[in-house]
Write the structure tokens for this entry.
Amino acid sequence: MTRIVRIILVLTVISAVGWLGWRSVRGGYLSKRADLQQQIVSITGDVDRYRAAVREHTRIQDELRHYVDRTLGADLETVDHQLRSRLNRIGEVLGLEALSVGTGRTRQLASPARSQFSRRQSELRDELDFVEVEAWISGQGDFDQALRLVGGVAAEPWLKRLGQVRLQPKDNGQRFAITVRLVTLFLPGRSPSGTLDGPGANPVSLEGYEQLAARNPFHVPSPPPPGPPPAQAAVARARPSFPFGKWFLTGVASGPGDIEVWLLNRESGESRRLAVGDALENMMLTAARGDAAEFRLGETRFRVVVGRPLSDRVPVAE
């Protein structure tokens, strides 16, 4: 056997031994180490997700407590009593006549997340989220009292949703029958941690509505004194003109983005509401501010003041 052959044999043996050793190390120590590292990554991810879930749960509980603290109680009897008492107190503070307060039907709402729970989690599936309670308050008073009633109910600190406000003017807008319908809610078994402000604790402000309350668009002013009789006109065979003189401008209302004027035909009792761009016959509303509205009739622009007929026009320069 030559020297070269012996060297080759030695190298082959060394390679075989190294390869067998590497397999043993990889199959024993390195593979177990890789498994442990993978388990560490998985467990670390589970811990991070758990910590995030704990933080989110705390945030949700704090937010839920904020809503619970704005309810009137934890059961129907307590909420019904508190609701009637508070609404009745608001009506008494405002001095409404023929005051009447009541509660209506209740509605139990199940969790919209019930589909996320299995049948074995029946307690969570069937748990009620909250219960809605309907209520109403009605009475009689002047226009200022009617506005303050709506504002007073809306300003109450407990949770509510105003569903309907109904005004029935009487005596040419001097008196009103008013009804406000609303819905509140409570979470069964969860009591508020504190006591809400009592009704009337904060006087209702009519800031921004003073002109509306003072003008009262439901009141039709007395007609102006008659002027001299017009000259006798020839009988025209053409289509009779529209009776603008019988239509009176009774009010101008300006909101956050809307302008609306109210018109009344004193002879027929018919009423109309116009927004900018709407028209009565061929007279189109173009603008309104304060106690006057601007119209366009053909190529002519003019202004009409609240309480005057549409035939009483003041020209407006282009």
